[in-house]
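Q: What does the assembly look like in three dimensions?
Context provided by user:
Components: two
Sequences:
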Amino acid sequence: LAKTTQPISMDSYEGQEVNITCSHNNIATNDYITWYQQFPSQGPRFIIQGYKTKVTNEVASLFIPADRKSSTLSLPRVSLSDTAVYYCLVGNNAGNMLTFGGGTRLMVKP
Amino acid sequence: NAGVTQTPKFQVLKTGQSMTLQCAQDMNHEYMSWYRQDPGMGLRLIHYSVGAGITDQGEVPNGYNVSRSTTEDFPLRLLSAAPSQTSVYFCASSQTTGRFEKLFFGSGTQLSVL
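A: Here is the predicted structure of the complete assembly.
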């Protein structure tokens, strides 16, 4: 299993850009990297997914270096509603080797 | 569209009791899975299924059984509950496993074993 490591918590202020990095040193060739957001008393919700280089959607960007041993989730101009726990997931396309990181608790302050 | 539905939301068991956590999805997803979430440990895969009639073990399968008789349902059974199984349980599904798809999660079941 690919072991993932994330910072336990981060603080930010409204309007700032937030970057959360996940380390996955033993990522396998077939593994994808996916980020999820979780609010209290809810299940995680998909944010973004990538394999290499950069991926961008309407809510976030995902940066993956060439060696793929880490990835960075970038949230532009965060708001109070972005306060949540963010999980990095590394998994292969068979769905049987899925390793979530311990999660990063992001607190956005006014 | 209900998505992934888990029942019950809360449950308290005594050590040694058995129970079944229910999970149903209405998206015709092939892949379904169960996770447990413990403080500071993220989510760990318990069991998963790539289609009706097919199940397999994840990272932490001991003490849990699953079955997949239909595409829609994927129940998780605790045969003899132990305090170590106190956790929040999430069911998730995705459309296929040919390419790693995004997971859709239920809202969770909070289980306490006394």
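Follow-up: Chain B touches chain A through 29 residues (CB under 8 Å).
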